[in-house]
Amino acid sequence: MKVIKINLAFVVAAITGVMTTLALWAHDSEEKAANPPHEAQPGAELSAQVAWSTIQKSVTDMETAVASKDLKAIHPATVEIMPAIKALQAHCRMLAGDVGLKLESSLHNLRSAVIDFHHERNDRVQERAKAQLTKVQAAFREVESQHPESLFNLGGSSTK
Fold this sequence. Notes:
single chain, mainly alpha, Four Helix Bundle (Hemerythrin (Met), subunit A), 6 helices, elongated
């Protein structure tokens, strides 16, 4: 009789565990569908012109967010810029010689600065976010100094 009670208890515990696992799996799937990861966003299919415009706009949005002390507004700008940076990096691979490699490296630096900036925003410390924004701006100016408008014939007013 004892063996049956132990086995029954084991069966009940196993079924409860399976049901809990299935419920958590279903909840996790729903959450992933509602909140896709940042890296899964499209970007490579963006044209160089759209990517560059998005980068410029996102940096401006980051500056506005810090100036207005609205650290929540940093998140959309840092998320929006990532696929644009990846897209422009992909376009750099089509450029000849060191020009493309140098711009791709500068874009990588910008991406790293934006990631760090995003994390500072998560900490909700205005002064640290402001300091990290300065690094984003410097990385952006490094990219901008290489005249992506003329490299990709985007019709910008910059000349080399």
